[in-house]
Predict the structure.
Amino acid sequence: MRLRSRIPAALAGLLACAPAAQAPDEGSSSSSSNGNGSGSDDASGEADDATSAANSEAGDTADTDTGDTSDDGPIPAACVTGEPAPQSIPELVARIEALPHPVTIPCVLASLPRPLSVVATDSEFSIQPAVGEDNPRLFILGDGLILSVVPAGDGAPLLEFSEWVDSTHTIKGELAFPITETIDPGDPYDLEYQDGLTRCGVCHANEYEVAERPGAHASLALQPVATSLVDVDGLDALLADCDWQAEAARCELLSGLLDHGEVVEGAFPEDLPTIFD
């Protein structure tokens, strides 16, 4: 929980109730010089002490402040829907549309039921490349749908997804975030072409159009190379060390993944090829 700088109620009450300074009556200055302080002097001293204590506490809490000023925190509570995981791209789009707008990737991640099955890779061979072990590409594995995100780098604004159509092929899609407007049915499949293939088809072989899904293409599913895998148990340390002031977007994504329930090490089907096969 991120702390906010605020004056405790007791101190605030003391400051509010301290009497205003009054002009000294005749003889008060001599009384003070004799060591018998007036009532207003006592109140002023108490107020000064209270102000000093309040400022000290505010300084202490400011050191731990993450910049969050909302009651919900960086990820709205409404993102945690309690709904089942989407198992198709249309179901994912419906989930996104139902979340509070503008929709962020951390909000989408927070909406998923736990436990989450996650595979992390530091591979740079992707249109959504990892940026070292501290910013791995993260695959969230579902029965019908795989999501992928990355905490930093050029691919950070993208939510990529793959919907299984058989044991070796998936429909590919992506959306750029934040989402501020209604998603058109064809938006997830609006992937630019290279040499007659979608961007996904450049690496994923056997690409073909999906007749019942206008604009969609399916292709061979791939799994990360074993030597590129990053230990999912280490993700908590990345969040704990995250600098909310300097890299808020990265911290929010890790929070959306890790702060809403159990995350476990997942695995792709063993018989899937890698990009190098």
User: Anything to note?
Assistant: The CA atoms of residues 130 and 136 lie 5 Å apart. DSSP finds seven helices and eleven strands in the chain.
